[in-house]
Amino acid sequence: MIHGYYFFVLYCAVEKKERQVNKMYDVKSPKAEEFINHEEILETLAYAEANKHNAALIDEIIAKAKLRKGLSHREAAVLLVCDIEEKNAEIFALAEQIKNDFYGNRIVLFAPLYLSNYCVNGCVYCPYHAKNKHIARKKMTQEEIAREVIALQDMGHKRLALEAGEDPVNNPIEYILESIKTIYGIKHKNGAIRRVNVNIAATTVENYRKLHEAGIGTYILFQETYNKENYEQLHPTGPKHNYAYHTEAMDRAMQGGIDDVGLGVLYGLSTYRYEFTGLLMHAEHLEAVFGVGPHTISVPRICPADDIDPNSFSNAIDDDIFAKLVACIRISVPYTGMIVSTRESPKSRERVLHLGISQISGGSKTSVGGYAIPEAKEENSAQFELSDNRTLDEVIAWLIDLGYTPSFCTACYREGRTGDRFMALCKNMQIHNCCLPNALMTLQEYLEDYAAPETKAKGEKLIAKEISQIPNEKVRRICQERLEKIRQGERDFRF
Ligand code: SF4
Ligand code: SF4
């Protein structure tokens, strides 16, 4: 009896303590450990596990997802672990439907541009980590960047993602800003880079303001892992070791005036269920505090690279789980763009394209430079090995063959449709009136200036078919006129 009472008191004390710990979860808190609260994630995972066969609840959540207003992290976590075959089929079908409703058959193209691989951090999954002595260290000069940008323009790219390691001496913010200026300044033949997204280390509000003033598109920063304990082990040295500073970076970016931010985790570093829940909690936090969720979510998976063996990461995920993740993210945040890179093979990319992906890279190099003059094998400055080595033109032709409309559109950011303005248009689906005509016009530019004859023929056929899909008659007529003007040599129209 005494023992029973003792355990009861102990149980109450533990439960009380847990409740107190859980009180730390606060979606609006500025503190990383409160808006990405470990206990809330554990409770969510336990709730999802307990309900993974609960058909009634799963039906309820799917019905809510059909409203296209998104799901909470708890609801989404249940769908992610659900293993009822017919419910999963419904989840995949809904993801496909939502992808189609919000993005149609369009896929936006971009290329990464690595400026420098000097890095002071010790990330154990990245070959740029400071201790790796057998990778070539490079930093491009402005002349080299100009040469690369000309090569990228000659491929047909209009949208870049800048990448650089964290190194205050070699890659200070001034270097990044100067590089952005160089990139926007180059107009080669009919080419132009019209949107520069930036993926650099977490920094200060002041530096984010400078990036905003330099006219960047999206600021992208992958969380890598939301699990703090794992995070600290995987980032043993360097400024990136600071979990809170890294996790709160998007808040500072928003405070610095950047309202388009891109989230992502590197799947394989921690359990995918934990990462998925953390990712959605991060999206909820940005929405709750700033009124605007992430502009994009990337879904990279750990892959081979110099000094890195993906098999040593026990949380690596297979293709089926990868597809389920993409589908569940798609229905949980329907208005957020989703990106898949050339880390994925053509086969894997094909599988997830229709489940929610709206942007892909094409013709990419992950070395520092390499577009203008391919890097010699012994130089090896690449961050990871590509699984898709096709040229941009091959990717364009492949997309068309699969029934997609490749797009080089950058209109929103140039028209000031960013942040909550963009999200409002996206949520009420008004953005549709812009995306399709812009996709067709930018594709027409590509066909005129860069496409191989076979791709051009396919593209022309596609444009002739897709133009009739523009619902607004006036927009359709204007688009038709502009397409003709593009064929005559004019460039850069947009809605
Ligand atoms: S992931 Fe980024 S911060 Fe880490 S070593 Fe690689 S380049 Fe440096
Ligand atoms: S119109 Fe805006 S949302 Fe649509 S493809 Fe262009 S940039 Fe993206």
Walkthrough of the structure:
It is a single chain. The chain starts with a helix and ends in an 8-residue tail after the last helix. Strands 1, 2, 3, 4, 5, 6, 7, 8 and 9 form a nine-stranded parallel beta sheet that branches. It folds into two domains: 100-389, Aldolase class I (TIM Barrel); 428-487. Helix 6 crosses helix 14 (319-332). The protein has 495 residues and is of the alpha/beta class. It has helices at 2-22, 32-35, 38-50, 55-65, 73-81, 85-103, 142-155, 173-185, 205-213, 228-234, 243-247, 249-255, 272-290, 319-332, 346-353, 392-401, 411-414, 419-427, 432-449, 453-466, 473-487, and strands at 106-116, 159-164, 195-199, 219-220, 261-264, 296-298, 337-340, 359-361, 405-407. The radius of gyration is 23 Å and the shape is globular. The protein binds iron/sulfur cluster (2 copies). One iron/sulfur cluster binds at residues 108, 407, 409-412, 431, 434-435, 438.
Features of the shown structure:
alpha/beta, single chain, 495 residues, nine-stranded parallel sheet, globular, disordered N terminus, TIM Barrel
Q: Please tell me the total number of domains.
A: 2
Helix content: 40-55%
Bound molecules: iron/sulfur cluster
Q: CATH superfamily name of the largest domain?
A: Aldolase class I
Oligomer: single chain
Q: Can you count the helices?
A: 21
Major β-sheet annotation: 9 strands, parallel
Net shape: globular
Got a strand count?
9
Give the SSE order as H and E letters.
HHHHHHEHEHEHEHHHEHEHEHEHEHHHHH
CATH fold descriptor of the largest domain = TIM Barrel
**Rg result:** 23 Å
The overall pLDDT average reads: 94
Per CATH, the architecture of the largest domain is Alpha-Beta Barrel
Low-confidence stretches: 1-19
Distance between the termini: 77 Å
User: What is the CATH domain class of the largest domain?
Assistant: Alpha Beta
Q: Structural class from helices and strands?
A: alpha/beta
What fraction of residues sit in β-strands? 5-15%
